[in-house]
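2024-03-11 09:14:02 DEBUG pipeline.ingest accepted 1 chain
2024-03-11 09:14:02 DEBUG pipeline.ingest length=74
2024-03-11 09:14:03 DEBUG pipeline.predict start
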Amino acid sequence: MTEAVLRKELHSIIDVIPVRSLPAVKPLLTYLADDYWKPVTEPASPKERAMIEKRVKEYEKDSSSFVPRKKKLP
């Protein structure tokens, strides 16, 4: 079974759970999803730091070439 099929199946199950049972299911789902919502952030590597420093210098030199983000990324 593929991940997409499994997720669709689980969504179908959640959709038919009686309203009175949803408060009982929520803590379990929250617990299972907890790792997803708390990603591990690793320090930048020397190569990544060099890339960042290079882009910061480019921005400081001429910020008009940079396009601001329109919306928050997921």
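2024-03-11 09:14:41 DEBUG pipeline.report The longest helix spans residues 22-37.
2024-03-11 09:14:41 DEBUG pipeline.predict end
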